[in-house]
Design a protein that fits this description.
single chain; alpha+beta; Aminopeptidase; OB fold (Dihydrolipoamide Acetyltransferase, E2P); 2 domains; 13-stranded mixed sheet; 4-stranded antiparallel sheet; globular; binds zinc ion
Length: about 350
């Protein structure tokens, strides 16, 4: 057969050769460096991804490299691009602390807190240094503002060095949220199957489908997972925690979710138990306030609401009702405003429309 095995080579020696070739493509034996952290095989190291000063201040993003003693893929775990989504940040800190390079096949690049200024200053959603959302500017720019330079550094140091990526989020200071994950449909069958297996292994039973099949305009910026997917790296997002809280239940969901993906990728021993019957959401409707004032929710995350149902209201500063928050579709409340502060145009709720499971 044309292109078959060379004459004189036994099946057994071909197999050995193939195993060697495959193993060489995986993290094994060599040092792994991310930012200032270099871990030898079987070791763990901490350091910083340095974002040099530019039009604004420099930043140092903490990173932990766990370089497994055995060969396997490299998984990047990222949190805290929104620095007050505390559960996701604490989950990665704990996961990195407890990760044992001796039992790991492959490597972990753990970035538990991308947006340190947001965390330190308790500023939700944005990087207070430049007022930008740190999960919207990938692949970044080496000469942009701090958010863009940080995205550039993470793209080079983390995304380009990994095979798989999980981005962790949660309800921010002002968001009441139920746990859910995102899976993206890119239209690339093998990539989508790989990330779908990851999101099922993660185990959260509410999954939002992101439609990334339409290419972005040249030069457009994007979120972290979309960027990683554009480089062919299977990636998912998971969210837990809300309104400044980090309960044991939310931390466990995120830590166990990451570990289950590691089991699925054969980086850890044991079997992942993928979620069997998740609810998939094909469309998320975003309801924004039409008035400044004081917000009162009338529904909780996870409740099923009907189109036209009142799910909250806004009063003026004297307590007079000035606007009703009405569900624009029938679906499940994925998150709803957690605090009374409300500005015209701010998000009141995300409502997910239940969809068929993707093939
Ligand atoms: Zn977030």
């Amino acid at each position: 057969m044309a292109g078959g095995k060379p004459a004189g080579v036994t099946m057994e020696s071909m197999k050995t050769w193939l195993v060697l070739v495959i193993a060489c493509g995986m993290a094994s034996g060599a040092d792994l460096t991310v930012g200032s952290a270099t871990a030898a095989s079987g070791r763990k190291a901490t350091g910083f991804i340095q974002v040099p000063a530019g039009v604004d201040a420099a930043a140092n993003i903490p990173v932990i490299v766990v370089n497994g003693a055995k060969p396997g893929p490299t998984l990047a775990l990222v949190a805290g691009s929104h620095g007050t989504e505390y559960a996701s940040i604490l989950a990665l800190q704990k996961l990195a602390q407890s990760a044992d390079p001796g039992e790991l096949s492959g490597a972990l690049i753990v970035v538990p807190l991308v947006n340190l200024a947001s965390f330190a200053q308790k500023v939700p959603h944005l990087n207070p240094v430049d007022g930008k959302n740190m999960n919207r500017f990938f692949p970044g720019k080496p000469d942009g503002t701090q958010t863009e330079r940080a995205a550039w550094a993470i793209a080079k140091q983390v995304v380009e060095k990994c095979d798989y990526l999980i981005d962790l989020h949660g309800g921010d200071l002002d968001e009441d949220l139920r746990q859910y994950a995102y899976w993206a449909n890119t239209g690339k069958a093998a990539l989508d199957a790989a990330s779908r297996a990851m999101v099922l292994a993660f185990g959260l039973d509410h999954i939002i489908i992101q439609d990334y099949r339409t290419p972005l305009a040249a030069g457009a910026t994007m979120n972290l997972t979309r960027f990683a997917l554009s480089l062919g790296k299977a990636s998912v997002t998971a969210e837990a925690g809300h309104a400044g809280m980090s309960s044991a239940e939310d931390l466990d969901a995120l830590i166990e979710g990451c570990r289950n993906v590691m089991r699925h990728l054969k980086m850890l021993p044991g079997k992942a138990a993928p979620v069997e019957h998740p609810l998939w959401f094909g469309r998320v409707s975003i309801l924004a306030s039409e008035q400044d004032g004081v917000f009162y929710p009338l529904a909780a995350p996870e409740s099923y609401v009907k189109h036209g149902m009142r799910i909250g209201y806004v009063t003026d500063y004297f307590g007079n009702r000035v606007w009703d928050a009405v569900a624009p579709i029938s679906g499940v409340i994925l998150y709803i405003g957690a605090v009374p502060s409300m500005k015209k145009g701010d998000t009141v709720a995300h409502i997910g429309e239940v969809a068929e499971a993707p093939m």
